[in-house]
Amino acid sequence: MGFLLKKLVVLILLQVTFSQGSLWPYGRVHVRVNNTLGQGSLLTIHCQSKDDDLGVHVLRNNDFFEWSFKPNAIIENTLFFCKLQWQSKTMSFDAYNEGRDLYGCHKTCYWYVLKAGVCMLKSSKPKPTYDFCFIWPDKKIVEVEHGYTKILP
Prior knowledge:
The chain has helices at 3-19, 98-101, and strands spanning 29-35, 43-48, 53-59, 64-69, 79-86, 89-97, 108-113, 117-123, 129-135, 140-145, 148-152. By secondary structure, the chain is mainly beta. The termini are far apart. The radius of gyration is 19 Å and the shape is globular. Strands 4-1-7-8-9 form a 5-stranded mixed beta sheet, with no helix packed on it. The chain contains 2 helices and 11 strands, in the order H-E-E-E-E-E-E-H-E-E-E-E-E.
């Protein structure tokens, strides 16, 4: 067998091994999107990857939508994106981008949909802090001070 063919066989075997989770240290990754828009606020969410359409879901306040998967450990190109609709506002965001989230989320990525936008939770203690946020498109950021963003409607 030629060198390139051997290399291809080894890569295929590694991919099969990783996809079965036996060598993948993190196992399955979970993504959870929480509706924290407030009482009576319905959130419509539609998430998918290039291979999997997770369907359309309507979440009441404090409801969440969660799914899990095994990332592509070798190429690191797993991507799930979601479209959100709340009242007359719509936005899309990457709920899981393996290049960004593989080592940041560890086993679970927590997203919170707020009146300001959708934010990934970094820590909940002593008070909630967020890694980063995607702001609703029709909002204007007017001030950022010590990690706190003031937003105008």
